[in-house]
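G., the chain you wanted modeled:
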Amino acid sequence: MAMRSAVVAPAVGLSAFRHVVLPFGTSIINAQSWHLQKRCLHSSYSRTVASPHQLIMNCCFDPRVGCISTSDCFRNLISRAGCKDPGSRMAATIAGSGVEIIDDINRENSGSFVVTTPLYYVNAAPHMGSAYPTIAADALARFQRLQGRKVVFVTGTDEHGEKIAAAAAAQQRQPKDHCDIVAAEYQALWKELGISYDRFVRTTEANHEKIVAEFYQRVYDKGDIYRAQYEGLYCINCEEYKDEKDLMEGNLCPIHRKPCLARKEDNYFFALTKYQKAIEELLTSNINFVQPSFRMNEVHGWVKDGLRDFSISRAAVEWGIPVPTDPEQTIYVWFDALLGYLSALLKTGMDATVDNAAASGWPASVHIIGKDILRFHAVYWPAMLMSAGLPLPASVFGHGFLTKDGLKMGKSLGNTLEPKDLVARFGADAVRYFFLKEIEFGKDGDFSEERFINIVNANLANTIGNLLNRTLGLLKKNCNAKVPRDSSSLPEDNPIRVLAAKNVETAKRKYAEIHFSEACDALLSIASAGNLYLDERTPWSQFKLGGAAAEAAALDLTAVLEVVRIVSVGLSPVVPNLCRRIYLQLGYSEDSFNVISWKDAEWGGLIAGQVMADADPVFRKIEEAGIEGSVIANKRDVQKGRGKKVLAAVGDN
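Predicted structure as tokens:
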């Protein structure tokens, strides 16, 4: 394209704006291969055409820097450029850059939030190690929906590769039949756990395979793929070549504790080394790209050691997508699976192209992954996207391992904790709550059944459930089960109202930062304060006095029920079934609960005259009766009266 006084650059794959006008003398060589040059600390990506000052930005909605929408982010930039009143039409020259951003923000994806789990390997049935990040992603998705965001929650299965073919052969199945069976098991478990995903992508889907092939061709045409021989130690379980210095004695993989095999292959490679500087700039200019911060330190270490090109095809693996330029080879599992985040966004009826998928919601707001696949997501994936001319995800969050006997739980190690068993015995609410409340998301955490029971009983059955139960009992006895006063009539400076407002704000911030444990702590503290308030105010005795004392007691009951209502809104991302039951007992309909927003966590929701339901435990205590080790009666046996050792009475109906 020849140079002109102003060049309009089409925003390929960028849905936040319609076009960008660049300064005099700008030459666009290829709009799909812009190089990453510069990044705003509160942006998901910044791209330029020829100069680091020509900025195109899409906000990552990071609450810590005050941006909650794309337009807010642009207003921040515009403000720095000295534009006082941009209005709805964005037109500003960023100071010192010469870039003019023109036209209205495209509202279709404004305020959207895309969260992804890993695409899970289907070599075996799902286990707690795969349920854990999915529960976390679900809680984040539910929280963002409460904020009014247009959420796209992506999960799915990674179904190609050597390990899958071997697993299928071991079961005397064809690979596709095996994938169908295990993918269905994932979907069934997600249903049991209350996972509210929007897209479930399978990498054996035809549309996904088309997008992978086009993406490969795009990177190949860019000159970033070449053929070469490679020799090294390969971990089949990681689907990755390993450096000998990173292995345990006997060349054991430190993650799977299995020997890595010496291999020599003639494969195609991605030129990762070409993106050394770009990845360094990404990590230094966007301090929130990898979270938690200590994970960012790990990534910095890998990059500092120097990036190396990596193999993206396999000559000896038949179960995979054929390489477009060489059908004798198949595409390496990671160069296939990572594209699932993109192909999942493709809208029904659209042609399966990279640009169509990208225009349907890309980039992702956050990839939630295990720390063992951090390198692929924080280094390989951004470089691949840069090569293909696509925007980068806003962030990558690497959670820790769940351990059992001090070892990571995994199918390859044979020491898994079965989520289906936990749900059957304790219910989805208990499972979701324990793993998000008691394990700091991002760090490793160990599962103990005794601790599990103690925490769930103390927090859900006692602190929250018993508070609701006894307050409803007092309300029925003294107020005919009707709310006696508007909750808004409690003075604004009342300590419990002040505490509730403060902790709701804390919980909101912690959810946004993916600190689920701290969000739960803040909300549980409101319920604890409600119990203390009830004990101190003793409304049961005040009602007996009549007159002003009884009036005050009536307001006290209203205040405590308002506390429970607020907690039920705030905890709904973590324990949605429990919170629904609470809402119904507070006299609301199921439809009312289904449309709650975070604004409903503000004080003042209960209205005088609202009729409450009869008290009925919303979460029944897990009774330990002669427990020996981990012998627990099946939930169905308990319901039929056959639970001899332990009563696991769970309220997940």
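Confidence is low (pLDDT under 50) at residues 1-109, 625-653.

Shout if anything looks off.
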